[in-house]
Each structure stands twice: as C-alpha cells, then as structure tokens.
TrEMBL record:
GO terms for cellular component: protein farnesyltransferase complex. It comes from the Eukaryota. Belongs to the protein prenyltransferase subunit beta family. One of its GO terms (biological process) is prenylation. This is Protein farnesyltransferase subunit beta. SUPFAM superfamilies: Terpenoid cyclases/Protein prenyltransferases (SSF48239).
Amino acid sequence: MAEATLKKPEFSTPQSCFTKTYVDQKFLETSILRRYDLFREDPEYSEKIRLIRDEHKEYLHKSARGLSEGYQELDASQPWFCYWILNSLDLLGVLDDTSSFVYKENLFEKTIYTIARCQGELGGFGGGPLQDSHLAPTYAAVNALAIVQKYHKGALDIIDSKKMFSFLLSLKQPDGSFAMHIGGERDLRGLYCALSVAYLLNIQTEELIKDSELFVKSCQTYEGGLASVPFAEAHGGYTFCGVAALGLLGKMEVIDVDSLFQWLVNRQMKFSGGFQGRTNKLVDGCYSWWQGGAFPLVVDYIQKRDGISLQNNNNGDWAFHQFALQQFILSCCQQPDGGLRDKPEKNRDLYHTSYCLSGLSRSQYNTFSKTTTVLGIKENLLKEIDHIHCIPVDKVEVAKLHFQNSKLEENKN
C-alpha cells in the first residue's frame, strides 16, 4: 500500500478577476481549504482521514426502506435508485456481510419485484411500471440485477434476452448510434448503455455494433474529450461513455487518444484534487468516476501501443493523482451523517453517493501493478469497481457467466 504525501494547495484563480466564475471558484476553494487545513497541520493527518462507513450504510439502508417525498418527481428513475443503492452497498462490502441476511433478502426481493414491473412488453425497461422502455433505466436495471444475482439466484432470469435484443436493435441508427427510446434523442449515453447491456447479456452481434465506433469518433472535439453528439462541447460523462464503448468494441484506435489523454489529465484540478466535468467548471464528486473511470482504458491502450509505462510508483497506475482525488472525496464529499455529495456546501444524494464511491474505488486499485493506493486508514479500501460497467468486478463475472451458460443451454435445446 503506497504512502500519501500531499502538499498545501495554492489558489488557482487570479486575484484580479471578479467574474461570476471567479467568485464561485474562490468560494469553493476557500471551503475546501478549511477542510484540508484540519489535516495538513497534523503530522498524523493521513491516519485521521477515514471513510465513514457506518454513516453511509445507515443512509443507504434508510433510502432502501423508502425514499422521501422529494423523490416523487423522479418517478421515472426507479431502476436507477435500485442500482445506486445496491452499487453503493456492494462497494462498501455490506452485501458480502453474512449478518442481517433477512434484511438483505428483503432488499433483493424488493429490487427484483420493482425492476420486473418496469420491463416492457417489447423488451428493455422503463423508468417505472407501464412506462416506455428507455436505454438509461435499462442499463440501470441490468446492473442492479447483476449485483443481486450473486446473492439471490434467478435475479437475472427475469430479463427476456430475446426481447432485449430486439429492443436494442430497434434503437440502432444508420450512423452507428442508438436512440435512447423509440423516437428519442441519440447520443453517446445511448450507445454506451446499449453496448454495456449487450455485452453483459452476451447478445452483441455484428449487426448490433456495426459502425458504433464511427459515431464515437464523430463526437471527439478539438479539445480532445468527447461530446454527447458531434459538434457539441467535450464533457466528462459523455467521454466516459465513449471510451467505455470503444473498450467493449476493442476500437480505441479510431479516436485521437493522445489528445483525449491530455484533456483527461487537465480535468483534475490542482487545488482540490477533484475532477471537473468540462473546461472552466467547478469540481464535482461524481466526475471522480466519469473522468477517473476513463483512465484505465486510455492508459492501457497507450502503454500497449507505445511499449511504455505510465505508472507512477508513488501514486499508482492511472496517470492522475490518486491520493489527491481520494483526499477530495474523503474530506469534501462525505456528508457527516452519511451519503456523499457533489462538493462542500451541497447536499447528499444517491447519485453522488454511488459515483463518488465508484471513483474512490477506481483510484484505489492499480490493475497493472496489482497493488492498492489507499489514503488514510486501511479500512478506507472499498471493493474493486469494474472500469466499464461500473459495478463491482465480481458481479460482472457473475452476469457474464450466467448468460454464457444460458446461451449454451439454448444451443443444446
């Protein structure tokens, strides 16, 4: 386990500028500095930075039992709530804990029941019962069921793979992209969600993936990052979607990887250690995953292409400062009573809880060197997240094996 060495940051904005951007940035950096100073002047600070597991567990358990009225407007996100809660609990190691089995069994059954009611007659999943099938909740539903499958056999059996394939194919566009739903918008989210589902369910075909890499290529901007659609602004979320899609396709070479790599590196902010989503924007904890999660595929491709190593023996494998990112998440994104958030002064939510933990996990595991890079106490280490599907690696293996066996049985019959 590598040791942490962090320096006191300097304000990143010039003191003579008084634009709204400057004011917001200075306010955020002042808030962050107050938190960092609590530790930096203490020689034993690294041992005091900790992941408040119990508080996060309680927040997630409470959310699993029932959401507040404020979530009613997000009725079309029911599979997402199942996924975010389960993914967070799994990364924290709660689902592997043999205690509280009755509670977890109830959680699994409740998840399966909720998601089954969202499955459309023509395949795919909607955001809620009787809602039109849509690629975003379909992706969330499949990920949630993949997590449950290890603990509750048969969870993945509720997915009608044949109808799912027909649903995905019905959304395929001539330019290689996918519409989010019948008659819906097309962007890199749809492409990633469709391919992630297809590869987990073992239903990818040449017809389904045809020209998808060309659509990803068309979304790369002059900055190097990827936009939602051609000629839009480079964005961390869409960049991850495009990079992960190319990773599944094995077609990373179609884009300018060096330009992309430079753009990714420049999104980690020197002052806070967190990632911003776009140029000249504030840092946000969720980009710990959307930006940080893209590094393994990009770094792996460059190392194999050029025959070089981008590893930093003092800070892991990923060519970003892993300790600094962990410090930002642990010091600034944890709400004291549980749950994680965008940044200081913001409120916790299930979305940021899942993606902050996912980014934290990604920054802790070094795939190439087979080591861990953990800031603070050793108990801060989470389970390892898969760098494409954004669920723990053991759940990806469970899902792929399930559908490989299903296809073998189908061929026998």
